[in-house]
Amino acid sequence: MAGLLPPLEITSGTPGGESLTTATSSVAQAWETFATGGDVTSDVRPDILASWYRCRDQYEVDPALDVAPPAPGHHDDQGPDSDVLFTQLGGLGALAGRDVELDGGVVAVTDGTGRILGTWGDPSARRRAEMSNMAPWSSWSEQCTGTNGMGTSFEVSGPVTVTGAEHWCEGFHQWACAGIAIRDVVTGSAIASINISRWGATLSGHVPVWLQKAATSVEQEIHRRALGEATQVVNAFTQERTDSSGPLVALDRGGQVVAANDAAMSLLRLPADAPASRGAVDPAERYRPDIPELAEVVRWAATRAAQDPQWSGYAQLGVSAEGAMPATLRPIVDANRVVGLLCAFGLQEGEPHGRAGEGSAVPMPPRVIGIRNDRLVLLAPSEIRYAEADRNTVWLSTDRGRILAATRGLDHVDRSLTRHGFRRVHRRFLVNLRRVAEVERGTKGELFLITDPRVPELVPVSRRHAPEVRRLLGV
């Protein structure tokens, strides 16, 4: 895996690289204003500004911090065969560390919580990094250590660079770093990150490219293992379907349909030739049901089942327009790990799913964070008509105008809005189907969605997504 990657080049073409003072002088002034509670008007990239808002207003990270805190407690398995994958990441980190030894670089690998598992690279740079506790068993999540390559990579899609004063904590302003999250292809959650850091000078533009290739190589292995998981899920479904007369589906760990019998296909309004009819082994072929509460129920069931493989439980799911119906979930276990769930609709057995325990806090309404000028905009999902991607930048068309999404990458925005009735209709567009007011057909059969007849906006629907959109809209 690692041998297929090119050498890691962290220095720019200029000897010594551009100094951090020169590269981020204007950002440093903006940081001073923002860190003392003011607003900033320019010079800060949107993804960095969004991170600063999280650090200041949500996580309340001390901007004067100069040492990362120890990682809290023990962390359980965070993904499929995590020990094997972390060993592979360690090998990748060690090889990359050799590449950056002569250029003052440090390579770090973390788990999915931002806890550093290992560092490699230039010995003097590593000693300097250890003074800030950039070393194993320290926590570099945004919640603990503010804006940085490791923690901020969990919040965005693709590589993220944090240079000099872009770090939220002043004690790290002499560092430049770039990181990328390694994600579980089934759930989309981060299970690790790899980060490159350099003291006193900027990083080469080759670094984000190398990080993307490194993440892709690891995620290819995760994908291969996900195919093996799916085979176990399909086998368990095949054995169970002979004893089931009602609607039965097999779900992966992320709540997507891997397999379904005829009754379930009809209940979910899936076409007869949908991949679930034969077993959607590839994660890209799986269907995510339009059941808002399903993701929460799957997480609950997987957590319970991890403690007891014989566990079963049920929940009320809004499957049809007629209202909610009970569904019983049972785990599919392979090598003592939950790899999926069997879901029998119309059956009510086992532990009931409770919405909230006694004395629990009142949940806050969901919000999507946007940025307009120098302000953070808090949007209810219902205010957003659609999202449009311009490469990694995402624009939200809302009742309050066109607003820049704080989160980069349409895939990342998609994951946060799917449960609120949004659907991907095109590689560049995500639409709130509840806001679709009109549908226009083109002369060649093209489909366009209109979310506000007063505004001349046509959202194109790709051929790939058209059948699903028609089904969901009933047209």
Q: Can you lay out the helices and strands and say which pair or pack?
A:
Layout (H helix, E strand, L loop, with lengths): L19 H4 L1 H11 L10 H13 L23 H19 L4 E7 L4 E6 L1 H9 L10 H4 L3 H5 L6 E4 L11 E9 L6 E10 L6 H36 L6 E5 L4 E4 L1 H6 L26 H14 L5 E8 L2 E12 L2 E9 L5 E2 L15 E5 L2 E5 L4 E7 L2 E6 L2 E5 L4 H8 L4 E5 L2 E4 L5 E4 L5 E4 L8 E3 L4 H8 L2
Parallel strand pairs: 8-11
Antiparallel strand pairs: 1-2, 1-5, 3-4, 4-5, 6-7, 6-10, 8-9, 9-10, 12-13, 12-16, 14-15, 14-18, 15-16, 17-18, 19-20, 20-21
Helix pairs in contact: 4-8
InterPro entries: GAF-like_dom_sf, LytR-like, LytTR_DNA-bd_dom
Keywords: DNA-binding
Protein name: DNA-binding protein
Report on this structure.
This protein is of the alpha+beta class and 475 residues long. It folds into three domains: 2-224, Beta-Lactamase (2-Layer Sandwich); 245-352, 2-Layer Sandwich (Beta-Lactamase), CATH 3.30.450.20; 368-473, OB fold (Dihydrolipoamide Acetyltransferase, E2P) (Beta Barrel), CATH 2.40.50. It is built from twelve helices and 21 strands. It has helices at residues 20-23, 25-35, 46-58, 82-100, 123-131, 142-145, 149-153, 206-241, 262-267, 294-307, 410-417, 466-473; strands at 105-111, 116-121, 160-163, 175-183, 190-199, 248-252, 257-260, 313-320, 323-334, 337-345, 351-352, 368-372, 375-379, 384-390, 393-398, 401-405, 422-426, 429-432, 438-441, 447-450, 459-461. The chain has a seven-stranded antiparallel β-sheet with strand order 13-12-16-15-14-18-17, sandwiched between helices. Strands 7-6-10-9-8-11 form a six-stranded mixed β-sheet, with helices on both faces. InterPro entries: GAF-like_dom_sf (IPR029016), LytR-like (IPR046947), LytTR_DNA-bd_dom (IPR007492).
